[in-house]
C-alpha cells in the first residue's frame, strides 16, 4: 500500500512537470512568432533636428546634374530620375529618404479643341498661343505620402481657367469697406461684448483672451488683437498675440492637468470663414490626443520611426524638401513649401518648440502672403507639442508645426473647396517651387531686423511723414505768395461780373493767416487756415455809398436752398442784399428784395 501511494505521488509530480514544460515551450514559441511577425521596436526614437547634411545648392550641383531650367513641379519627375543615378553617397542617402516617404508620378492628358471653341479658350489664356499648346497636351503630377497618406495633384495650368484667380472687383476697396462697416465691433469692445473664462482673461498691450461663447472643446478661447484692421499688424503685435496664447495654454494646463494638447486656428476675412473682420485666433486644448489630422500625422511619424531604425520623420521630411530647394531657415525654425499641400500656396513651418524664431518665421510668411503675393484671405493651423512645463518634448511627440494656405481672392464668390478636396485628394494649382521664392525673399528682407529695429524704423517713418507734411505746407505758402504777386494789380475792385479774385493776405496778432477773395460786387471772404488743416470762414463786407445807415441782422442755417450763410442786410440801395456762403469759402452777394 505504501508503495502504491508513493507511485501515485511520483505520477502527480511527473504530470505537473510535464504540464509546466509544455507551457514553457508553448510560451516560447508564441514569443518567437510574435518577434518574427511584429515590427522590431527600437530602443529609442531620434529626436527632431533641423540639422542638414548639405545645403540646397549642393544637391542641385552634385545630385541633379546640369539643369537648363529652374526646378518646378512639372519637371520634378525628371529631376528625381537624375537624382536616382547620382554617385555621391549623400545624394543617395537623401534620395532614399525621399522614395521612402513619397511616391511621384506624371500623367499626360490630351485635349482636342474645335475651331468654334478655340477663340474662347485663347481669350481665357490672354491670347497666348504657347499656353494653348499646353492646354492641348497637359502634364499632371501626382504626389502621394506613403505614411501620412496625403495626396496632391498638380496642374498649374488650371490656375489659368476662368474665375480661378480673378478677384472680381477692387480688392483693396472691398477690404476697406469691410473694415469701415465693422468698426466698433464686439471685439473692439471686448470688455463688455465678449465672455470670459472661469479663470478670467489674459491681457497684454496688444492682445487679450475671451472665452468662446459656442465652444468646440472644454477649453476654447479667442485670442484677440486690439487693433481692428485684419491685415495691418506689426511684428511686435504678432509676437505679443502669441505670447498671450502661450500663457493661456499654460493657464489651462495648470487649471486641469489632463488637458495637454494645444491648438491654434486663425482664419482671415469671410472668404476664409472668419465670422468677424477683427483679427482673432481660436485657441483650444484637448485632453486625449491632437485633433484628427495632426494626430494621424503624429502616428504616421511613429510608424516611420519604427520601420526606419528610429529615424525622425519630421527631420527627414525637412531634409527631403531642403534637397529640392523647397525650404528656408530662420534660427531654430524652418519653412517649407509642402509637397502635398492641402490647398494652394501651403507653407509648413516646423521648429522643436514654439519659440520666438518659430513665431517670427510664421509672421514673415504671413507678410509674404499679404504684402508680396496679395493673398488676403488665408487659413492657419498651429499644433504644438504636449504641454510639459518642466521639460522638453519627448522624441515620440510632434514638434511645433504651423500650416498656412491661401483661400483664394476674397471677392470671388466661388468656393475654393470642392468634393475633390473633401473626399479625395488635394487639387493644387500653384507650384510649390514658386511659393518658396516669395517666402525666402520675405525672410531675407524682414528677418534681418529685430523687433526693436522695426519699431525704430516705424518711428523714423512717422517722423519722415511729419517732415513731408511740413514741406508740403511750406510749398503751399510759397505758391500762395507767388499768386498774390501775380494778382497785385487786381486789388482795386471792379465790376467783373461776379468773378472771384484773390486780392491779398491778412495777418492778425494770433498768427492766423487768411486769403481774401472778392467778387465783382465788392464783398469779400477770408479763408483762415490753421496748421494747414482747419478752415474758418469770416466775412468782410464793404459798403458802397458812404453815409448810409446800416442795420444788421444775422441769418441762420435755414436757407431753403440748403446753403450755409451768414451776413447783413444792407440799406441805402435800391435793393436789399445778403452775403451767402455756399460752402467753398467765397462770399456771394444775392439780391433778396427791394426796400418795400
From TrEMBL:
Membrane-spanning parts: none
Q: Where is the composition biased (Basic and acidic residues)?
A: 510-537, 547-570
Q: Which domain of life is it from?
A: Eukaryota
Which chain positions lie within coiled-coil regions?
A: 454-488
User: InterPro entries attached here?
Assistant: HIT-like_sf
| Disordered: annotated span | 505-570
The record's annotation in SUPFAM superfamilies points to:
HIT-like
Its keywords, alphabetically, are: Coiled coil
Q: Which PANTHER family match?
A: EGF-LIKE DOMAIN-CONTAINING PROTEIN (PTHR34714), PTHR34714:SF3
What is the protein's name according to its record? Uncharacterized protein
